Amino acid sequence: MAEPKSFRCVTCGREFPPWSVDYFCPRCGFPAGNLEVRYALGRGGLDFPDPEGVGLWRYAALLPVGAEHAVRLRAGGTPLYPCPELAEAFGLRGLWLKDDTLQPTGSCKDRGTAVAVAVARRLGRTALSCASTGNAASSLAGFCAAGGLPCYIFVPKHAPAPKVAQLVAFGARVFRVDGTYDQAFALALAASQEFGWYNRSDGLNPMVVEGNKTVAFEIWEELGDVPEAVVVAVGDGAVIAGVCKGFLELREGGWAARVPRVFGVQAEGAAAVAHAFARYRRGEPILPAEEPAQTLADSICVGKPADVVKAVRYVAETGGGYVTVRDPELLAAAQELARRAGVFAEPSGAAPYAALQRLVREGQLGPRDRVVLVLTGSGLKDPQGVTRGLPEPPLIPPDLRAVREGVERCG
Ligand SMILES: [Zn+2]
Q1: How many angstroms separate the alpha carbon of residue 20 from the centre of ligand 1?
Q2: 30: CA distance to ligand 1 center in Å?
Q3: What is the dihedral of CA 146, 149, 150, 151, to 10 degrees?
Q4: Over the chain (411 residues), what is each successive 10-residue block's mean pLDDT?
Q5: For residues 26 and 86, is the Cβ–Cβ distance under 8 A?
Q6: Cβ–Cβ contacts within 10 Å for residue 136, how many?
Q7: Ligand 1 centre and the CA of 138: distance in Å?
Q8: How far apart are CA 372 and CA 374, in angstroms?
């Protein structure tokens, strides 16, 4: 593991001794005072990547906690699928799918959870908590079950039933909040302070970004280089902040000569980060970022993004940008991705695929570019959401004639 040099406030730049503060700079408050973990980066003497490390613990040399504190579920180490036929169809030099739907609880959130739970154990915290649109919650519930730690979960009432089912199965204490994700988030924060729980919520806990950055390390290691662009869905901003931070640290430490442009995708109806990015480009302040949010992609239905400062600044630093897509495009992307690539992602997970068309059409990506789409959540998390509008399979009698008729009808 790497002992952090400091925890730095993203707004005022004040540096705190590592572990002296959990979540945010007391002067700037939340979310302006979110913290970033800083290291003294340099290749010399670091065992990075560690060939003996399992899953994301291969990269422990750039993580704030070592594998000895980890629980047994294996986060990270997901496949990177080359898709030459899709690359050709989109007119790209190369296209890969980073399939983070294959994490232990079915979403990319397991990366941040793995590191946050290991940190909680290192710090001797005895209970954890989290607010989530669903995936981070089921992730924390699973890792706490594996570690024998109690956890307290706050989800909005519109969280899909399969995600709530995971929580219940893992034995979490679940509070379904009769309100939005943003209200559940605020309640989880207040309750964690009241009861002393270690809060894993995205955007609040800086350890989540530390775990999330390992997806960048895996892409770099597998390709033997960094691609020209990476595309990922954005809700509260913690995942894209991690993607960017990973690549920026690879450059800072001398492992990579450059960073890929990182593009964030949001639903048109829940685009607070994309709008904050546009304001930042015009020279305006990032905060406050708060707007109504509505989209069928529940995982990215966030109106008050908690990690917006990092999600905007880091993306700007990579030279990337933001794209918004309409709900029907998200749905069509999830269905097309399943049909053409064999990867079953939830609508938010397939958002990068929806954005790709637009980025190519606008000339932001083209024949010189090798592009990685990060697929963040499994379609099994919300199967009815993904298959909306698709025909029901016919019910047939158990005889061969019915099969023959079906084959003649549908091919
Ligand atoms: Zn500050």
Answers
A1: 14
A2: 9
A3: -70
A4: 93 97 96 96 81 96 96 97 97 98 97 98 97 91 97 90 90 94 92 97 96 98 97 97 98 95 98 98 96 91 94 98 97 95 94 96 97 96 89 93 91 71
A5: no
A6: 31
A7: 31
A8: 6
CA of 204 to the centre of ligand 1 (A): 14
The whole-number pLDDT of residue 133 equals 80
| Token pair for 40 | 């003294």
Query: What is the distance in A from the centroid of ligand 1 to the CA of 33?
Result: 5
Cβ-in-10-Å burial (0-12, 13-18, 19+) of 407 comes to exposed
**DSSP codes joined into one string, 304-350:** S-TTHHHHHHHHHHHT-EEEEE-HHHHHHHHHHHHHHH---B-TTTT
| Tokens linked to 229 | 């662009």
Task: Return the DSSP state at 34.
Answer: B
Q: What is the distance between the alpha carbons of residues 277 and 315, in angstroms, rounded to a whole number?
A: 9
Which residues, listed in sequence order, are joined to residue 155 by a DSSP beta bridge? 176
- Provide DSSP, 111-157: HHHHHHHHHHHHHT---EEEE-SSHHHHHHHHHHHHHT--EEEEEET
Query: Nearest 5°: phi and psi at 74?
Result: -95, 110
Whether the Cβ atoms of residue 304 and residue 133 lie closer than 8 Å to each other: no
CA of 21 to the centre of ligand 1 (A): 12
What is the CA(47)–ligand 1 centre distance, in A? 33
Distance 319 CA to ligand 1 centre (A): 25
Q: 206 alpha carbon to ligand 1 midpoint, in Å?
A: 14
Domain 80-106+208-384, CATH: 3.40.50.1100
Domain boundaries, the chain: 80-106+208-384
Whether omega before 31 lies within 30 degrees of 0, making that bond cis, reads yes
The tokens for 12 are: 């005022």
pLDDT value of residue 72: 95
